[in-house]
Amino acid sequence: MDKLIHGTAADGTVRVMAAITTETVAEAIRRHQTSPTVSAALGRLLTGTLLLASGQKELDRLTVKIEADGAVEGITAEAGADGKVRGYVKNPYAELPPKENGKFDVSGIVGGGMFYVIRETGYDIGLYREPYVGSVPIVSGEIAEDFAYYLAKSEQIPSAVLLGVLLEKQAPFVKASGGVIIQMMPGANEHIITMIEDTISHAPHITSIINEGASARNLVKLALGEIDFEILEEKEVAFDCNCSFERAVSLISSLGREEVAAMLAEDKGAKMTCGFCNEIYTLDEADLQKMLETEKV
Ligand code: ZN
Question: Which among 95, 136, 233, 236 could disulfide-bond with 35, CB atoms 3.0 to 4.6 Å apart, if both were Cys?
């Protein structure tokens, strides 16, 4: 099971979040049948979104949305404070040859565009609040750098963001996936910041140590080096969608009586695919008939 931790260091002036997301990203790839480069992009976004959503009080849902002018067109990830994440891409089949260094050309398929962060709170207690929306232009397209730019620019939190997905040719296609975010909060001292920057610049790539069995805690150590840290929370994370057959029924009934009657007459049923997880819900004649008889529509 994938795990995420969040904690603090240097008397609370440094916040750390780290996660292993190997199974989470494998499930996303299985559901969306993404090309290798899109898989890397989606995996990084899912991981970054989970990390950003962790440790936030009263958060119901955090959505990170990339509107891209490159071939992938768009990527969306949505995470809750409960460690569940779901996401999708507009063009799962976009692909480009690898870069000269052999890495996936994620910035190539993303191109330019906008990076949005939407925070929603209050639903759980029946309170509606205007969602908080922050946005920055895409500066890199490699995604980790875009998270860092967003945090620095829009939330004024200087951050180091490491996200990585290591793929393999056979199913489940993901060998290792994970990420770390280190945030310098107000009051963080220069010496600590320099130490962290130095540690990160000399650290091995995170996917290579995840592949060797590293835990989320090991990822924090990799980024903080000798600096002690305290873990505030540890939780399981997974790709999980809140769609259901009941929800599909209520969506179809919302199309109206005429539309449902037409589906029954012409198609003898209805099919609905969840955009977030690609689950297909099939309503047969009896389901539609029941909908019309019970005057649910
Ligand atoms: Zn779904």
Answer: 95
Which residues make beta-bridge pairs with 78? 63, 86
DSSP conformational letter for 249: H
d(CA 185, CA 159): 9
Query: Is residue 234 helix, strand or coil?
Result: strand
Measured between alpha carbons, how far is 117 from 152 in angstroms, rounded to an integer?
13
CATH classification code of 3-239: 3.55.30.10
pLDDT tens series, the chain, 297 aa: 999 999 999 999 999 999 999 999 999 999 999 999 999 999 999 999 999 999 677 778 999 999 999 999 999 999 998 899 999 999 999 999 999 998 999 999 999 999 999 998 866 666 667 889 999 999 999 999 999 999 999 999 999 999 999 999 998 999 999 999 999 999 999 999 999 999 999 999 999 999 999 999 999 999 999 999 999 999 999 999 999 999 999 999 999 999 999 999 999 999 999 999 999 999 999 999 998 888 656
Domain ranges of the chain: 3-239, 245-293
- In the structure, ligand 1 is a single-atom ion and the residues with CB under 5 Å from it are 241, 243, 274, 276-277, 279
Claim: this prediction has a pTM higher than 0.85: yes
Identify the H or E element spanning 58: none
State in Å: Cα 280 to ligand 1 middle. Answer: 8
Structurally, at CATH architecture level, domain 245-293 sits in: Alpha-Beta Complex (3.90)
Buried/exposed 35-50: b ≥16 CB within 10 Å, e otherwise? bbbbbbbbbbbbbbbb
